[in-house]
Amino acid sequence: MTERAPVRELKALQAALAAEHAAVYGYGVVGGRVPKGRRTEAQAAYDAHRARRDALVREVRDLDGTPVSAAAAYALPFPVPDPASAVRLAADLEDRVAGVYSDLVRAATGERRGTAAEALREAAVRAVRWRGESVAFPGLAERAGTA
User: What would the pLDDT profile of 86-112 be if each residue is shown by its tens digit?
Assistant: First the structure.
């Protein structure tokens, strides 16, 4: 038996919220180590993720859910000792966020689907800016090897 649509949508919203919590934390690390010329970009991304996080909290509550809380700290996917690794972390954060928004696009309906698609697009564009190149299917790259 498949999950009902509202349950799938709430789970996808919660996953997106968790990813936004992690992105906000990650950009705290990025901002402390990113090259000086990219600090404005890092601040803009941080602000964008905070705004998305806050909107997702409201959406989860609108569906009578209890928003997932942020962790006190998050394990980074790799050490970030210098500006180059900070840039790499920023691209990785955006890839991860794009992935959960891809899932939300699939689970959502109506206006929420459009909002999720916009968030996916924004994350993909930020990832390209950080990485300097694009991927064929933003939000799906890390899922290519999984069934």
Answer: 999 999 999 999 999 999 999 999 999
- Pick the closest to residue 16 from 72, 58, 75 (CA basis): 58
* Non-local CB neighbours of 100 within 8 Å, separated by 6+ positions: 12, 15, 16, 18, 19
User: Who's near 51: CB < 8 A, 6+ residues apart?
Assistant: none
Q: Please state, in angstroms and rounded to a whole number, the distance separating the CA atoms of residues 60 and 21.
A: 14
In the block, which residue shows the tokens 């991304």?
A: 45
Q: Tell me the pTM.
A: 0.89
Helices (H), 5-82: 5-33, 39-62
Please work out, in degrees rounded to the nearest 5, the angle formed at the alpha carbon of residue 5 by the alpha carbons of 62 and 58.
Answer: 15
Q: What are the tokens at 130?
A: 């950080």
Hey, what domains does the chain have and what are their CATH numbers?
5-70+80-142 (1.20.1260.10)
